[in-house]
Amino acid sequence: MIVYEVNVDVAPDIAEDYGAWLHAHIAEILALPGFTGATRYRRDDPARESDAAAPTLRWTIHYRLRDRVALDDYLREHASRLRAEGLARFGNQFTATRRVLEVAD
Fold it and tell me: Could you tell me if residue 51 is inside a domain?
C-alpha cells in the first residue's frame, strides 16, 4: 500500500469555498483506478500559530493506493489536470505540498 499525502494551507477568505471544492476533488480522485480510500485531517501547526500571516485552515489528505504502479499512473495521467483545476479556481490563495509514504515493514 502507498499513501499519497497532500498538505494544503488555505487563505481564510476562501476556506469555505475551497473546502466544498476539496470534498468533490477527493471524490473525483477516489474514482480513479488504484485508489482505495482517503482520509482528510484538519491539521494544527503549533509552530505557526503565532504567525499572524499564516493561513487559518490547514488540511492533510492521505490518499491510499494499492501500489506504486497506481500512483505512477495517477501522476502521469491525471495529476497535472487535477492540480490545474484548483489553481484556476483559487490561484495563489492556497499552497499544497505532497509526499509519498510507503509501509516500511
Answer: no
Q: Using the predicted structure, report yes or no on whether residue 94 has a pLDDT greater than 90.
A: yes
In a domain, 38, yes or no: yes
CATH of residue 18's domain is 3.30.70.100
pLDDT in tens, 37-60: 999 999 987 665 555 565 578 999
Residues 6+ apart with CB under 8 A from 96: 6, 7, 8, 9, 83, 86
Measured distance between the N- and C-terminal CA atoms of the chain, rounded to whole angstroms: 11
Q: Is the pTM here over 0.85, yes or no?
A: yes
Domain span at residue 32 reads 2-46+56-102
Residue 65 near residue 47, CB atoms below 8 Å: no
